[in-house]
Amino acid sequence: MSILIGSDTRVLVQGATGTQARFDIHYCLEYGTRIVAGVTPGRGGEVVEGVPVFNTVAGAVAATGANASVVYVPARAVKDAVLEAVEGGIQVLACLAENVPRHDAAAAVAAARAAGARLLGFNTNGVVSPVERCKLGGIGGDRAHDLYAPGRIGVCSRSGGMSAEICWTLSRAGLGASTCVSMGGDPIVGMRMLEILEMFEADPATDACVIFGEPGGTHEIEVAGALRAGRLKKPIVALIVGLFQESYPPGVSFGHFAAVIKGENDTASAKRRLLAAAGARVAASLEEIPDLLPRG
Amino acid sequence: MKLLEDHAKAWLRSRGLPLPDGRAAGSAAAAAAAARELGGRVAVKALVAAGRRGKAGAVKLVHDADAAAAAAGAILGMELAGQRTERVYVEQAIDIAAELYVSFGFGRFAPQLVVSRRGGVEIEAVARGEILSADIDPLSGLSSWRAAALWERAGVDSRLLPPLASLTARLYDAFQAADALMLEINPLAVTRDGSLSLVGAMLEVDDCALFRHPEWQAPGVADAGSKVLSEREQAVLEADRKFAGGAIRYTELEGDIGLFVSGGGAGLLQHDLVVAAGGRPANHSDLSPASIDKPAALFDAIFANPRVRGVLVGMNYLQLLPCTLVIEALLVSLRRNGVDPRRLPIVLRAFGPKENEARALAATVPGLRYMPHGATLGEAVREIVAAVKAGGT
Fold this sequence. Notes:
heterodimer, A: 296 residues, 7-stranded mixed beta sheet, 14 strands, B: 393 residues, alpha+beta, 11 helices, 34% helix
């Protein structure tokens, strides 16, 4: 079992003929993901890494039964790509572009949520379920099997790169992930961190969760609230970075566009305090994460 | 970025929204001429995107052209929020009967409308119960009847509701058309004859959508902010715009360890680790490369910083790109800047696709310290901190 994706996931790739898409499709197929179609308007009939390319999502879905999409189009084309996918009946989307114009992001997210589709990103590198051998997007690169060992830990990260470091740390400690979600680093993303943790809460294959957080925004604060209210019961280990940012004036962007401190409550140390007070186990370093997880 | 008041108001005016007439002026004489053209009482305001201009004495209400010249003379050259005032905005003063507040911004997912009957003061000073907000569905936009419902709950007089609701809906359209992150009208003035006027207008537009608004990329449109960019920061900004695909960001700091760190979160973590290990970063950086041009430009900036005494090339386990891309960019920049890694310690931590090829490439340059496969981010950080300490004594 896993969340968001599984062995019945049939993936289409929007923007399949681009360089990054080709790179990722190659390793996704090697990993075992069932990529059934690509979509690039005007390039229907071509073949990428053995995958047939269609002109439209509707055409690809009709021919292949695709139910998930990885969206590789550039930021300025993201809104239309998501709207097309949602209209075509796609249920799970990973949207890789970063710095998507805010109004486009809001419209795309609204369309996905209205249709009950799950949208990861913007600025995600995907989602991987090591148990089901399925991944959307570049997550794991050429060594998804090494970095993401199968196990019973649910991982949710605001950073795609850190999802790899966390899961690699788990693997080396003899632990593994049920599903690892890179939720996206843009200011508006399709799913809140809390919504992803609620899915892990309901997933019988997940015993505990690891979250990776940053300054800025309220994702971690919402998680702390749900923990305190008893709505999340599985143990949560939290790694929240960006302490150094507190020595600089508010409003300075150092990394992800969403990681900008606006007030007193969205700093890394405030989030660590809130999560710890709510019952999460706050890790001081990557290496400490395995020690804080329950052993099964 | 925040647009300066004259550009923000010109944009709103171009959409047919009601605003007091106004002109920008760069001298006392120009301010006097503007006041004569406008006629009657005028407000003279500093053209900088600083808040609380009134409190700082940078907004003056005057009755004639001579007084406008004097006011402009006093305001021009003023230092506000770290910026020197170069121009003033001369605007027709209107007879205000009531002041309202309306703004548009973003909530967790959707655009948000905020209104209050208490305009004319900073919104932070208004009691929470008197501020109302509603999410807007970005797909259907804001209807005038939903705006009317919110204003009614805010306690606005019934007779004012129809024009106010229609204006609010048109403001939302302007907010969206401008690709704005924030549009704040404070005060939204109700004049003695019952008409509405956007007296205070702040427009912050989305840097990520500037490709749709080339007119706002010209100098003098946006608030420059109080931060003066270093030559190297400016160069990175220009390279980021010039080369297609990916992104680079570079912020210079006071320390001596150059950070070439990637992947948002991993960069923040490594920066924390450097500080915890007793090192002082010379900069923060972030990159998502598409070709070697942008990473090479980022390396150039780091090597050009005279404070740098060691460099950490710390990548999270690469998933989206080959390690060779980073090393190729490094080698190009080393050559371009005449940097010798035997004298300037450079620690590399880059694992992932094409790692063996990257190692072979790095081995062609003596002195590069490529961490063994499996080394943690923390180990690479401790290596560079120790190397810089050893080199500095």
